[in-house]
From TrEMBL:
SUPFAM superfamilies: GAF domain-like, PP2C-like, PYP-like sensor domain (PAS domain). SMART domains: ANTAR (SM01012), PP2C_SIG (SM00331). Residues 550-577 form a coiled coil. It holds the Pfam family GAF_2. The keyword Nucleotide-binding does not apply. PANTHER family: STAGE II SPORULATION PROTEIN E, STAGE II SPORULATION PROTEIN E-RELATED. It comes from Saccharothrix coeruleofusca. PROSITE patterns: ANTAR, PAC. This is Transcription antitermination regulator. InterPro entries: ANTAR (IPR005561), Bact_Sigma-Reg (IPR052016), GAF (IPR003018), GAF-like_dom_sf (IPR029016), PAS (IPR000014), PAS-assoc_C (IPR000700), PAS-like_dom_sf (IPR035965), PPM-type-like_dom_sf (IPR036457). Residues 500-552 form the PAC domain. Residues 32-93 form the ANTAR domain. It comes from the Bacteria.
Length: 800
C-alpha cells in the first residue's frame, strides 16, 4: 500500500519550508535596513565633506603640515575631545571664519547648551546644531538658485525642528511677493501662490512691512491666507524677513503641520540665521525669469524719470557702513526743478549724504524714517501734507509739502512739492468765501472798472458772462422798504469815505428774494481822494430764516413749558390733597397704622402712588398700597379713580382677592386704559388674621422680633392688563409687636441691582430698625438707597 504522504512531503516538510521562507524574508529585511543605514551615512558624509575639507585647510595653514597629517590630527583631536570629526570640523570653521553666521551660531549654541559645557547642542536627530547650520550654509552658498536653497534648508536645518514645508518669497519694488523657492509644497499649490499682489495681508506680507519675524501659532485661527493653507490649515507658521544692506529682499516662511507652541530663544535665533542665508540668492532672483537689467542702466532710467518731473526730485542710493549695514543715503542726483529747503544750489546737494544735508530729517517719524522704510520694504509712501524742517543759520525753518517716496531697484526716488504760501492763502480764502456764501467786489472810481468773484454773480442770480453792477445802482435791486438803509450806507462810503455796512433784501431777476448784508470800505490816495471801493456781500438768508424760526420756536416752547408747569402744579395739588406726605397714625382694634409718603423730586415726575387705611362698617380694617403707570395729570387722576373705587368696593364685605378682581374690571373697562399694581389687605380684629392679595405688586415684609421675612409672591397680574383675571389670596396671623410693611417700588428699586436683591436689602434694614412705628418708617425712608427718583409710599402695620 502506498503511504498517504510521499517522502519529503507532508506537514513536517511544509513547516520546514515555512521557516526557511521566513528566514529568507528576515535576511532580506535586514539587508534593506543595512543598505538604508549606509545610504544615510553616505549622505551625512557627503553633506559634511565640505566642512571636513575646510577644517583640514585650517589645520594645514595653522600647523604648517600636509593634508594627510592634517587629516590624522583632525581625527586625533576629535577622539580626545569626545566629538565626531564632523562636529570638530564645524567648530574649527566657526573659529576661523568669525563671520556674521558664526556669530549667530555661537549665540545659538550658548543658549542651547549653556555657557561652559563642552558638548555641542544636539537637536532633533542628535546632529550637532553647529554642523546642521554650517551644512545648511554650505548648501545655500553653493546653490545656483533659490529653489535649491529652499530644499537644502528644509532637509538640513528645518526638518529636525519639526517643520514640513518652507517657502522663500522675493519682495518686489512695489512690495509685492513672488514665490522664489519652496520645499514640502506641491507644484500645483506653488503655482497658485506664484505671485501675491500688494495689499494682500499674509504672514509674509506682515513680516515684510513690519520688518520683523511674525510667529503664528495656528494659521486657521489667525485668518491669514498663505501658501499650503489648505493642507496645513491647523499648523503653525513663522515668516522672517531676509535682508542685506538695510533692504528687505524677501521673506523666509516655515510651515509646521501642528499648532506651534512658543519657541525658545535658540530656535528663534536659528530661524533668523537661516533667513539671512536666503538673502544672497534673492539679490539675483529675477521674478520674470529673464536676464537682469544692468544696475547702471536702471539708475540712468531713474535719473531720466526724475528730470521729467515738474516737482523737486532726489535720486538716493543706499550708503552702507563697514559692517554692510545701512547707515544713510547718498544723494546721487537732483532734477532741474529741484529747490532746496534752505536755498542752497544744486551742486551743494549732489553727492552728499542725506543726514549731512538735512540733519533735522533724522527725527523719529520724519523724512529719513519714511525713506528707510520704503527702501527696506518697497512699500511706497504718499502724503498730501508733511512737515519738513531745515536749519537756516541755526534757525529751524518749517515748511509743509506734499511728499512721494518710491523704490526703484536698489534706489529711492523722493519727490516733494512745497506749498506756496500765497497760493495756499488764496485757496483758503476761496473755500472760506464759498462756505460763508460771500461774494467780493472791487470798483474803481477813476476807470469805472468793476471786478466781481464767481460767488457774487451767483448771489445776484446772474450768469458769469453778465456785466457787474455798480454799487450806486444797489437801490434798484433792493426791496423798496430798505431804501433808507441803503442810501445811508452809500452816503457813508461814497461821500463821507468811511467803511460801513447795511442789511437789505435783494430782489433778483428770477423773482427770488435773498436777505443780504453788504460791507464796503473806500481806498484813498495820499491826498485823500477816493480811488476805489472794496467790499463783500454775504447771503444771510439762512441765518435770517433760522432766527425767525427760532423766535417762533421760543414762543411755542414758552407756551408749552407754561402748560406743562400748570399740569404739573395741578397734579401735585391733587396728589397732596388726597395723600399728604405724612398723616396722623391710626390706632384701632389693637393695631397702629402709620404712613409715610415721599413724592418725586422733580415736578414733572409726579406719579400715581397711593395708600389707604380705613375702618369698614364691618369693623374690619382695609389697608392698600398701589402704583399707577405714568406721571402727571393722568397718573394722579388714575390714582384717584382706583383708590376711591377700592374704598367703595370694600363696603360690600368681599375678600381681598374678590376686591382686586372687581378693581381690575374698573381699570380695564370703566377707565381710560389704566395699568397699575396694588396690594389689598383686610384685617379681622376677632381672629387677628390679615388676609391679602396682590396685583403685580411687590410682596409685603413681616418683621417679627429681630427677623424680617418676605411674604410669598402670590399669583396676580397687574390691574387693567387683562379683561378677566383671578387673584390668589393669602393670610398671615399677626402676633404682638409684629410689624407688616407695605411699600411701592420707589423705596427699594435701583437701576443696577436685581429687584430680589433690593427687597432683601429692605428686609435687612427693617430687621435692624427699632423704636416706635413712626421712627421705624422714618428710618427706612431716610436710609433708602433707591435711585429711580420715583414716588415712594410706605405703610406700616404694628400689632400692639
Amino acid at each position: 500500500m502506498s503511504s498517504p504522504n510521499p517522502p519529503g512531503t507532508g506537514p513536517a516538510t511544509e513547516n520546514t519550508a515555512d521557516r526557511a521562507g521566513e528566514g529568507g524574508l528576515g535576511r532580506l529585511a535586514a539587508t534593506v535596513e543595512r543598505l538604508r543605514k549606509q545610504v544615510r551615512e553616505a549622505n551625512a558624509a557627503a553633506d559634511g565633506r565640505a566642512l571636513v575639507e575646510l577644517a583640514k585647510g585650517v589645520l594645514v595653514e595653522r600647523l604648517r603640515c600636509g593634508p594627510a597629517q592634517a587629516a590624522r590630527q583632525l581625527s586625533e583631536l576629535a577622539e580626545q575631545a569626545g566629538l565626531t570629526v564632523l562636529e570638530l570640523a564645524a567648530d574649527l570653521v566657526n573659529q576661523a571664519a568669525q563671520d556674521r553666521f558664526t556669530e549667530v551660531v555661537d549665540q545659538f549654541l550658548a543658549h542651547a547648551v549653556g555657557e561652559g559645557e563642552d558638548r555641542p547642542a544636539q537637536v532633533g536627530d542628535g546632529t550637532s546644531a553647529a554642523v546642521r547650520l554650517r551644512t545648511a550654509e554650505s548648501g545655500a552658498l553653493a546653490a545656483g538658485d533659490t529653489q535649491t536653497v529652499a530644499e537644502s534648508l528644509l532637509e538640513h536645518a528645518l526638518t529636525p525642528l519639526g517643520a514640513t514645508a518652507v517657502a522663500i518669497w522675493s519682495a518686489g519694488n512695489d512690495s509685492s511677493l513672488t514665490l522664489a523657492g519652496f520645499a514640502g509644497i506641491t507644484p500645483e499649490e506653488a503655482a497658485r501662490w506664484r505671485y501675491v499682489p500688494p495689499g494682500v495681508v499674509t504672514p509674509a506680507r506682515r513680516a515684510l512691512v513690519e520688518r520683523g519675524a511674525v510667529w503664528v501659532e495656528d494659521l486657521a485661527r489667525s485668518g491669514l491666507p498663505s501658501v499650503a493653507h489648505r493642507d496645513l490649515a491647523g499648523g503653525g507658521r513663522v515668516a522672517v524677513p531676509a535682508g542685506a544692506g538695510g533692504r528687505v529682499l524677501g521673506v523666509l516662511e516655515i510651515c509646521w503641520p501642528q499648532p506651534l507652541e512658543p519657541q525658545p530663544q535658540p530656535v528663534r535665533r536659528q530661524v533668523e540665521a537661516l533667513a539671512e542665508l536666503c538673502a544672497h540668492t534673492l539679490e539675483t532672483f529675477d521674478p520674470h525669469g529673464g536676464e537682469d537689467d544692468p544696475a547702471g542702466r536702471a539708475l540712468a532710467e531713474l535719473v531720466d524719470l526724475a528730470d521729467g518731473l515738474l516737482d523737486s526730485a532726489l535720486v538716493l542710493r543706499p550708503h552702507l557702513d563697514a559692517n554692510g549695514e545701512l547707515s544713510d543715503f547718498r544723494i546721487h542726483h537732483v532734477n532741474r526743478r529741484f529747490v532746496d529747503l534752505a536755498g542752497r544750489p544744486r551742486g551743494a546737494i549732489v553727492g552728499a549724504l542725506v543726514l549731512e544735508v538735512y540733519p533735522m530729517a533724522a527725527d523719529d517719524g520724519s523724512l529719513f524714517d519714511k525713506v528707510e522704510h520704503v527702501h527696506a520694504t518697497g512699500e511706497p509712501f504718499r502724503a498730501e501734507r508733511m512737515t519738513l524742517t531745515e536749519l537756516v543759520d541755526q534757525v529751524p525753518l518749517t515748511v509743509v509739502a506734499a511728499v512721494s517716496i518710491s523704490r526703484h531697484g536698489d534706489n529711492v526716488l523722493v519727490v516733494w512739492r512745497v506749498q506756496d504760501e500765497t497760493a495756499r492763502l488764496a485757496n483758503l480764502l476761496q473755500h472760506a468765501q464759498r462756505l460763508g456764501r460771500i461774494g467780493g467786489f472791487e470798483e474803481s472810481t477813476a476807470t469805472g472798472e468793476i471786478t466781481w468773484n464767481s460767488q457774487l454773480f451767483a448771489l445776484y442770480g446772474l450768469p458769469a458772462s453778465a456785466d457787474p453792477l455798480p454799487l450806486a445802482q444797489l437801490p434798484l435791486h433792493a426791496h423798496p422798504d430798505d431804501a433808507v438803509a441803503i442810501n445811508r450806507f452809500l452816503r457813508a462810503v461814497l461821500h463821507h469815505r468811511r467803511a460801513d455796512s447795511a442789511a437789505f433784501r435783494l430782489q433778483r431777476p428770477d423773482g427770488v428774494t435773498r436777505h443780504v448784508r453788504v460791507i464796503a470800505e473806500p481806498v484813498l490816495d495820499a491826498a485823500g481822494r477816493l480811488l476805489a471801493v472794496r467790499g463783500a456781500y454775504q447771503d444771510v438768508s439762512a441765518q435770517h430764516w433760522t432766527e425767525v424760526a427760532l423766535s417762533a420756536t421760543r414762543d411755542q416752547l414758552a407756551h408749552t413749558e407754561q402748560q406743562a408747569a400748570e399740569h404739573n402744579r395741578l397734579a401735585l395739588q391733587l396728589q397732596q390733597a388726597i395723600m399728604p406726605p405724612a398723616q396722623p397714625s391710626i390706632d384701632a382694634f389693637g393695631l397702629r397704622i402709620a404712613v409715610r409718603y415721599r413724592p418725586a423730586e422733580q415736578e414733572h415726575l409726579v406719579g400715581g402712588d397711593w395708600y389707604d387705611a380705613v375702618v369698614l362698617p364691618s369693623k374690619q380694617i382695609l389697608v392698600s398700597v398701589g402704583d399707577i403707570t405714568g406721571h402727571g395729570i393722568k397718573g394722579a387722576t388714575g390714582m384717584v379713580v382706583l383708590r376711591n373705587a377700592l374704598r367703595g368696593l370694600a363696603a360690600t364685605g368681599a375678600g381681598p382677592a374678590q376686591l382686586l378682581t372687581w378693581l381690575n374690571v374698573v381699570a380695564h373697562h370703566l377707565s381710560d386704559n389704566i395699568l397699575a399694581t396694588a396690594i389689598c389687605g383686610l384685617y379681622d380684629p376677632q381672629t387677628r388674621v390679615l388676609r391679602w392679595a396682590r396685583a403685580g405688586h411687590l410682596p409685603p415684609v413681616l418683621v417679627r422680633g429681630q427677623h424680617a421675612t418676605v411674604l410669598p409672591m402670590l399669583d396676580g397680574v397687574l390691574l387693567g392688563a387683562l379683561a378677566e383675571v383671578d387673584y390668589e389670596e393669602g393670610q398671615v396671623q399677626l402676633e404682638q409687636d409684629d410689624v407688616l410693611l407695605l411699600y411701592t417700588d420707589g423705596l427699594v428699586e435701583r437701576r443696577d441691582t436685581p429687584l430680589d436683591d433690593c427687597i432683601e436689602a429692605l428686609s435687612s434694614a427693617a430687621a435692624g430698625a427699632w423704636g416706635p412705628l413712626e421712627e421705624r418708617l422714618d428710618h427706612l425712608l431716610t436710609h433708602s438707597d433707591a435711585d429711580t427718583d420715583d414716588d415712594t409710599c410706605l405703610l406700616g402695620i404694628q400689632m400692639l
